[in-house]
Design brief:
seven-stranded mixed beta sheet, binds glycinamide ribonucleotide, 7 strands, 21% strand, alpha/beta
């Protein structure tokens, strides 16, 4: 049974999709051990509590330095003995020490088709604003492993979503969540939990590197 830690900053609709998938059998062989937020006001924390899941907040503001915050974050993750860390709308940079220690065990959901509209400054609604400004006709979402770069780790799953005439950043964000994010994030977790990752492009990408 894979022990999941879900890291969040906001509303937690992706967290909800994971909880629902575990409840309805869309994800097997995994359970959520803890939900960790950097934001005390994150509604995601309420979603966790409502499901009897440990909900923890570590706010950078309550630490004297970034280093102290990073140490505490890694300490918390270690304490729970997590097998897989899922960044579900976690808008804080992951400490380098955590990336090293948990290599290939941290995944992130990003609301675009990477490598479009990703990297520094592209998060949340800003991603959809940029996509509409550029006039793309297709956007989507990506689940990827987290490495030292921003949105640069190996891609696990992607799903395309059509941009429709009259879309606003908000309507587009909602459609990308409904049609892509809430599907591919649980799907990626289920693949990892059941050893089916070889079915994604990841193993092919790795072989090419070697
Ligand atoms: C989601 O759209 C997620 O893809 C995005 O934040 C939102 C969180 O929503 N993440 C990023 O932009 C990361 N770069 P949620 O709290 O309702 O799951």
């Amino acid at each position: 049974m894979l022990k999941l830690g879900v890291m969040v900053s906001g509303g937690g609709t992706n967290l909800q999709a994971i909880i629902d998938a575990i409840d309805n059998g869309g994800i097997t062989n995994a359970g959520i051990k803890a939900v960790i937020s950097n934001n005390p006001g994150a509604y995601a924390l309420e979603r966790a509590k409502a499901h009897g899941i440990d909900a923890v907040c570590l706010s950078p503001k309550s630490f004297e330095s970034r280093e102290e915050f990073h140490k505490a974050l890694l300490g918390k993750v270690d304490e729970y003995g997590l097998d897989l860390i899922v960044l579900a709308g976690f808008l804080v940079t992951i400490p380098a020490a955590m990336i090293q220690k948990y290599r290939n065990r941290i995944i992130n959901i990003h609301p675009s088709l990477i490598p479009s509209f990703c990297g520094v400054g592209y998060y949340g609604l800003k991603v959809h604003e940029a996509a509409l400004k550029r006039g793309v006709k297709l956007t989507g979402a990506t689940v990827h492993f987290v490495d030292e770069g921003v949105d640069s780790g190996p891609i696990i799953l992607q799903k395309a979503v059509e941009v429709l005439p009259g879309d606003t950043p908000k309507t587009l964000q909602r459609r990308v969540m409904e049609e892509a994010e809430w599907k591919i994030l649980p799907q990626a977790i289920d693949m990892i939990a059941n050893g089916r990752l070889k079915d994604s492009g990841l193993s092919a990408a790795k072989e090419e590197e070697e």
